[in-house]
Amino acid sequence: MAEWSRVARRIRVPLGFVFAVLYFWLARPTWKFIALGAIGIVPGLLIRALASGHVRKNEALAMSGPYAYTRNPLYLGSLLIGVGFAVAARSWWVGVVLVVMFLAIYLPVIRDEEAFLRQRFPDFEEYARRVPRMLPRITPVRTNEGGGGFSLDLYLKHREYNALLGALAMLAALFIKMTWFS
């Protein structure tokens, strides 16, 4: 399983580009379904943006902001974005591929990352006991972390704006497909 986690970590981004091509080919967008899809896409982008402004990779255990609700807000945001785009595509095949990719790629990566965090940060075990892996808590966990609030510098450092740019590009592609190829 550890070997697959390493492979999954390396292939997840290139596989995402392959999936984008398959997605565009299978998508049958309409205005109504793009609007419905935005119900997942917009919050997903917002969660990812907020999370990226709180995480100091390999330096400190992120427990503030979205990390007070879920241990994996970046992946939760990605999942919401994916579900939103699956709805916008109006294709069951896209939804099936999305679920398979999440289970086969992201769950092993999450487990691998958590093993690293357990080794690196002694507070992780208590944090993991109090904060769910994926589905968020209703109320935030109170911690003694002094990390503070959102940092625009971290958001920019992590280049999280690429998620927004990618979503806008895919929405533009859906609009083009809908208007020119329907």
Structural features, described:
- The protein is mainly alpha-helical and 182 residues long.
- The protein has one domain (14-95, 121-180).
- The chain is 69% helix and 0% strand.
- It is built from seven helices and no strands.
- Helix 1 (2-26) packs antiparallel against helix 4 (92-120), helix 2 (31-52) packs antiparallel against helix 7 and helix 3 (73-89) packs antiparallel against helix 4.
- The longest helix has 29 residues, at 92-120.
- The radius of gyration is 17 Å and the shape is globular.
- The mean pLDDT is 90.
Strand content: under 5%
The residue ranges in which pLDDT falls below 50 over 5 or more consecutive positions are none
How many domains is the backbone divided into?
Answer: 1
Helix content: 55-70%
**Main sheet characteristics:** none
Averaged pLDDT: 90
- Let me know the number of strands: 0
**Element-level helix/strand string:** HHHHHHH
User: Which structural category fits the helices and strands?
Assistant: mainly alpha
Number of helices: 7
How large is the radius of gyration? 17 Å
